[in-house]
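Lab notes, practical 5.
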Amino acid sequence: MEMSEILKYLPEEAKATKDPGLETWEKLIDALLTETEDEVEAIELKKKKKIAIEFECDGCCKKVLNGNRIFFIPIINVIVLIPPLGERLLLKVFSCGHIVDKEKMKAIVIPISRICSVEIGAEQIDC
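Output from the prediction step:
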């Protein structure tokens, strides 16, 4: 998918100005679509930084794990979490205190208003 295709989904007023949120959006898309040699060389360092985010959606609690970078996009009031290069995020869905679903993904977009917590240096321990 080309950057021009992705940008067509943004509001016209966002495209007309060089908004910091739009710049962040462009950087995010570039990061998802390209992998540079510098990123490959830094992969071991990046793997050490683990980010987890808990958020609510439709009465369920969700936790996304194995994040490496967070992008804040103020124009649409969301954050985007992506994993280390070559890996996937892990999403766990909880209902009534039990895991009811698991998914893997390359990125997740979460509305700021839904976030319950952000964990830095998170390491999942399954009991």
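Observations recorded by the TA: The mean pLDDT is 76. DSSP finds five helices and eight strands in the chain.
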